[in-house]
Specification:
The structure is a homodimer of 280-residue chains.
Chain A: E1 3-9, H1 13-24, E2 28-34, H2 38-46, E3 52-54, H3 57-62, E4 66-69, H4 73-83, E5 92-95, H5 101-107, E6 116-118, E7 120-122, E8 143-147, H6 154-166, E9 170-174, H7 176-199, H8 211-217, H9 224-233, H10 235-257, H11 261-278
Parallel strand pairs in A: 1-2, 1-4, 2-3, 4-5, 5-6, 8-9
Antiparallel strand pairs in A: 7-8
Helix pairs in contact in A: 4-5, 5-7, 7-10, 10-11
Chain lengths: 280, 280
């Protein structure tokens, strides 16, 4: 794959990493980054993540063959709707949002002829923010989910998959709702649990934590506004995932109450098998 | 501090690290490691963690000026009671167990005159096991909790504190029950939650996890038998900590159900403040 102008809306950890990877891998001739502050864009340019900066989303997207929206999930739909009317036929729009159903379904049937939006979610990133944490290998060997619905054009889907593969990612196709149900379990629930755990730690016990507490709560350092938007867009699936957690916590509680050591051992062994399978 | 013979019962990650640190820092003239298998002890000797190995706890402890029990929490009391009658007056016994009340209270009043047991818990370690993961700097700058009760002799307490400080640790004195209530929140609850989360992940979703899930569940790779014993010895405090978690999960649930984004943002912001204060 080879792109003339690639526009990245939102040049943070993910957007910056896309820019770095696209430039180092020769995917795009020119990378345009869009942000709200010139200083951020200048930093991204100095890091080699973009070639030029713009403060105007529709303007920067109009110049693109492919544009990827790496902004908070509650901003993507509005930005795409604002930018799409100015796009030439054949422009491909995608995103990197952590939720998919609200975004993809909100855009279906609302874009000009010849302009396609295909939802994407690279399973990469961290609790850190900003292009200063971007890495050209962020997507290498990692999975990116690309969404398909009955309205997704096959060529747009193929190009979206080729885009992420060109950045080093492995790609899996899912429908938006299946994505959101899956991520509720694999990402949103862990975030909620980490935040619940961090939130209950009294200040006087902070010095009495060790690596276990720090690992288990690490993602709770993520940006509250970004995560509020993610939870708000995936409330139903997160609530269902939370029910599954509560069931399992109840099994631990029952085993503890009954001093059922075999029951505890079974629960811990099952967890260890799963965790060992995930690798470090 | 300078010890003639230091005996380490259980030469795994913690015991091996004590041996490495004691030898590299010149704390002990000779380090005797006790295990159940000669092969494990030979490995520990090859790594420089011990000078000689023994399969006999009372025999190896009898030779020691100071012995530290780094075995699972449900084995420590029995091993100490078996070893103490053979010890010379002035011998100091301590441990590295993750629970303290059952161990310390079970031993009070049951040791020969002149033989002291003081409970210890270095807040170091990981989900890994075995002396091959031992590190001479494991305790450096980390906290070790040393327990004091009305029956703890001041000199034995001082020597125990000096021992851990000689290994590079910072020391805090707590009573055994306060230790257990604290660790229920800072260590045992995170382990339980990580295991609950890992345990609910269906096999088909394993490939759809990313660093967030892996960080949050990392400790669930710990040894189920070790952790069953820890939970069994600290059931009451862990159940109380679990109640606090449930309260907080309920606040998330209520905010999700009501689509209360301000409420979610407040909960996530509070968690981020705590997590940021803990450092990476």
């Amino acid at each position: 794959m080879r792109i003339g102008n690639l526009t990245i809306v939102g040049v943070g950890l993910i957007g910056g990493s896309i820019g770095l990877a696209a430039k180092r891998r020769g995917l795009a001739e020119r990378v345009i980054g869009v942000g709200r502050q010139m200083r951020t864009l200048e930093n991204a340019r100095d890091l080699g993540a973009i070639d030029e900066g713009s403060l105007d989303v529709p303007d920067a997207v109009r110049a693109a063959e492919l544009a990827v929206f790496c902004t908070p999930v509650d901003q993507i739909v509005g930005q795409v709707l604002a930018a799409a009317p100015g796009c030439a036929a054949g422009t491909l729009l995608t995103d990197a949002g952590s939720t998919k159903a609200v975004i993809v379904r909100s855009l279906e049937g609302r874009l000009p002829d010849g302009v396609a939006f295909v939802g994407s979610h690279p399973l990469a990133g961290s609790e850190k923010r900003g292009s200063e944490h971007a890495a050209e290998d962020l997507f290498e060997g990692r999975l990116t989910i690309v969404t398909r619905t009955p309205q997704t054009g096959p060529e747009a889907l193929d190009r979206t998959m080729a885009f992420w593969r060109s950045l080093g990612a492995q790609v899996r196709v899912m429908d938006p709702e299946a994505h959101d149900q899956t991520l509720a379990v694999t990402s949103h629930l862990p975030h909620l649990v980490a935040a619940a755990l961090a939130g209950l730690l009294p200040a006087e016990l902070q010095s009495l934590t060790a690596t276990g507490f720090r690992d288990t709560t690490r993602v709770a350092a993520g940006d509250p506004a970004l995560w509020t938007a993610i939870f708000a867009q995936n409330r139903g699936a997160v609530l269902a995932a939370l029910d599954r957690l509560e069931d399992r916590l109840e099994r631990f509680r029952a085993a503890l109450r009954a001093d059922d050591q075999k029951g505890l051992h079974d629960l811990l062994s099952e967890a260890k098998r799963v965790r060992d399978a995930l690798g470090s």
